[in-house]
Amino acid sequence: MNWEMVEAWLRTDDRCVLPLGCTEQHATLSLATDSLLAERVSLEAAAPLGVPVFPVLSYGITPTFMAYPGTLSLRTRTYLSVLEDLLGSLHTHGFRRILVVNGHGGNVPGQGWLGEWLSAHPDTRVQWHNWWNAPRTWAAVQATDELASHASWMENFPWTRLEGVAAPAERKPAVDIGRLKQLGPREARALLGDGNYAGLHVRPDEDMARIWAQAVAETRALLENGWAP
Questions:
Q1: Burial class (CB in 10 A: 0-12, 13-18, 19+), 91
Q2: Where are the beta strands (DSSP E) in the chain?
Q3: Percent of the chain residues topping a pLDDT of 70
Q4: Per-domain residue ranges of the chain
């Protein structure tokens, strides 16, 4: 879209989508996994409705993984400032129903902060949607394989894989998340190894297609019917 197309959209509708991602280690998968997934699920969900999807914010809060080269982390205060500026820009232009599609668990400080922003903008509705663990999508993951987490099979889609990089065959036992949260980056890497938290690294594409269909449908339902009066 160009600016005139956005202006035309706003004459008849005030909805938009803002995807949030991250750039961080994902074991054998792309460093951009969270961004690729958040943007793609947003685009596929919004396409039949014509709702604008803004480019994904590709950087997030991920200090624990800073011992893995290629990980880029924002400080929490920096991240919240960026969100404030982005939501403020959307509000200035007239968007009043904003679906934030988050693809990275470390970004959740933004979800807590959002209430503060909304209290200053009572004319606006914002939904924060963690697409991967929303009820229908997470149920589809659990029905497929209960052992699933960061950088495991549940994020291994054709569009997050790297050409020529083979996924290990091991079914990795779950790491102690309570212990992990107490560790600095070097110790976290020593505990995690390649970065997968738990489970297989890959499952058949037909399994992933079923989960993805639920994720797209669940996200679209929020765009259509998720707005408070």
A1: middle
A2: 15-20, 97-102, 125-130
A3: 100
A4: 3-224
